[in-house]
Design brief:
The structure is a homodimer.
Chain A lengths: L12 H8 L3 H8 L7 H14 L5 H8 L4 E7 L3 H4 L2 H16 L3 E7 L2 H12 L5 E6 L17 E3 L13 E4 L1 H14 L5 E5 L5 H14 L8 E3 L5 H11 L8 E4 L2 H13 L9 E3 L16 E3 L2 H16 L9 E4 L2 E3 L5
Parallel strand pairs in A: 1-2, 1-3, 3-4, 5-11, 6-7, 6-8, 8-9
Antiparallel strand pairs in A: 10-12
Helix pairs in contact in A: 1-2, 1-3, 6-12, 8-9, 10-11
The structure holds a DNA duplex (16 and 16 nucleotides).
Chain lengths: ~350, ~350
DNA sequence: CTGTTAGCGCGTTCAG
DNA sequence: CTGAACGCGCTAACAG
């Protein structure tokens, strides 16, 4: 006559029904918030659930209901370094929060190889999640195509400039605007002899930021003053500064594609004996944590990664609620110049 | 008479069977590597699968088979800042790789609130995954308890010093050893007047590292030379240095619980006019990316987070393969002193 | 308002 | 070696 039955085996909806002395159809209705359940039955069911420690089985439910109450956050990384970026983690955390508040469980998948892409494709095709956030920092298209057959909403983290066959709504930062603004900030100070360090070719943001720089420079733009880096790392910034060495003495500033690169540039500039910002001003992009850890602190373009994750989730939620959203939709998030010491 | 049927609706195992002209039981056997399928049937089935773009449905399969071929990587964070740590991301990436190679899809869940813990508990109780990696940097027990009823293997990222009711195999770093070694490194240089900045109380690593310091100091240990920080951040290091100010002039070194704190200490020390390491040596712990970005570069204790993720996964895989592992098992990963400039 | 029943897609006997 | 039938746990449509 033990009061609290020890959960020896899986307790199913049928056990609850038996305990509450109703049919299990009724229990199902109760569980799904159906109106047609007498308050009396409801009370007994609630009690039975409590006593039996019942938890509905996800797999069975999603099989019958064709929805899973989870959304997948798929991060596609060119190199694992991307995964380590604070911006990725921030967007991930905020998306998790936003979706969680709406009753969805977020699961994160990492696509960093042919194999993992394959596995993920399989999951997607069996409707593993109700919706997808594709957080990608690469131009690789292989992942985006796996959603064609799954008729589930998808939101991208980046506006692709190329017109691919398939496309989904996207939330991105105003990369070009940001780089354009900070360049103008330099120009307005009379620093007009500028060089640019561009990010890796595989990244759309790279070209957008370069575009912003070009726009601000107008006719003064000179491609020989652009260094094209292979990645987003500090070492690339150092290499850029080395490359620029011959022309350094008549340069007012160097605009960089991101903070890491800017740090590398500054490090190398100092080794060459230049002072920052007195001799040469340097700007970054991202406002990553290290921007304030450096000396001088970085003047940079701030983008709110938390906001990125939140807006992507909100858009996806609206789509999950049935709202139809044009696949060409692109939401551009504002950027902001943060003036510190390096420029 | 179209060759390649357009995947209009969900294609099930039945469709494949029809195409291959066998019963769907046979297809199921083929799919699960059962011997008893004639090579002729196998060939026809393979062809049918190819043509129909068939993908087995995860939910249905896991419902019938009671396994999901996925493992969950649950990261429990006291504050979101933890999630931003490079070490977490590294372990995550490597676990994803290791599990992926073994045919398991890793999904990451973030537990950062009462709600999210609740949702995750529900998933776990419906056998959402075949196994669990609990990556936790907090002492909160609420999560660890949700695995009691789920009879699935679990591996922890940290050895708890407290003897809780439930426990699982764990993989952790030799925190005490590491801190002990680097302290001895200072002592051996004749720097014997040392202070210590301890990490936050909620973290087990905190106390273990402090323990290592105590061990190295032996009788010379003096609790008044210990500052107890509230978190792992730079600001805490700065506060510690302020706290230590009165005794700074007769201190040879400050051993810190992690790199961030060490950086804060160094920053503040400089403001006070002390040179590092000439006047006071400072050591960190983690060998995080910023350790080499600072000037002076940090002398610190290196721990291989990739290895952490890999070993945790390997242990879990063995358990998934049926090997029984004592719940008290603790695998300690080696740490290593990295000598740079700050000490 | 409630019990009954037919699937959801697939694994697994169990005969044949 | 293969086909048929049942069950996994739950939802939803349909009678009552």
């Amino acid at each position: 006559m033990s009061r609290t039955a020890i959960a020896t085996k899986k307790v199913t909806i049928r056990d609850v029904a038996r305990l509450a002395e109703v049919s299990y159809g009724t229990v199902s209705r109760y569980l799904n918030g159906n109106e047609h359940v007498s308050t009396d039955a409801a009370r007994r069911i609630a009690k039975a659930i409590e006593e039996s420690h019942y938890t509905p089985n996800k797999a069975a439910r999603s099989l019958a209901q064709q929805r899973t109450s989870t959304v997948a956050f798929i991060v596609q990384v060119e190199s694992i370094a991307t995964l380590l970026q604070a911006s990725t983690a921030a967007a991930m955390a905020e998306a998790n929060q936003t979706l969680g508040d709406a009753g969805y469980q977020m699961v994160t998948l990492i696509a960093n190889s042919e194999d993992s892409t394959q596995r993920i494709a399989q999951l997607v095709q069996s409707d593993f999640a109700d919706g997808y956030l594709l957080f990608s920092l690469s131009e690789d298209d292989s992942l985006i195509n796996i959603f064609r057959t799954a008729h589930r909403p998808v939101v991208l983290s980046e506006a692709s400039d190329r017109s691919t066959a398939v496309s989904y709504p996207a939330v991105d930062f105003a990369n070009a605007d940001g780089q354009c603004s900070i360049t103008r900030y330099l120009l307005d100070q009379g620093k007009i002899r500028l060089a640019y360090v561009c990010g890796p070719g595989y990244s759309p943001s790279s070209s957008k930021r370069l575009h912003g720089f070009k726009q601000a420079m107008g006719a003064y733009f000179d491609d020989s003053h652009v260094y094209y880096a292979d990645d987003w790392e500090i070492a690339s910034g150092e290499m850029a500064a080395v490359e620029f060495q011959p022309m350094l003495h008549d340069l007012d500033g160097i605009v960089c594609a991101n903070d890491n690169i800017a740090i590398g540039v500054i490090n190398q500039l100092r080794r060459f004996g230049y002072r920052v910002p007195e001799d040469i001003a340097v700007t970054g992009f991202d406002d990553s944590p290290i921007a304030t850890m450096m000396d001088p602190k970085l003047t940079t373009v701030r983008q709110d990664s938390w906001l990125h994750g939140r807006v992507m989730s909100q858009l996806l939620l609206r789509m999950l609620h049935g709202e139809v959203v044009d696949h060409q939709t692109v939401k551009l998030l504002p950027t902001e110049i943060v003036t510190r010491q390096s420029a």
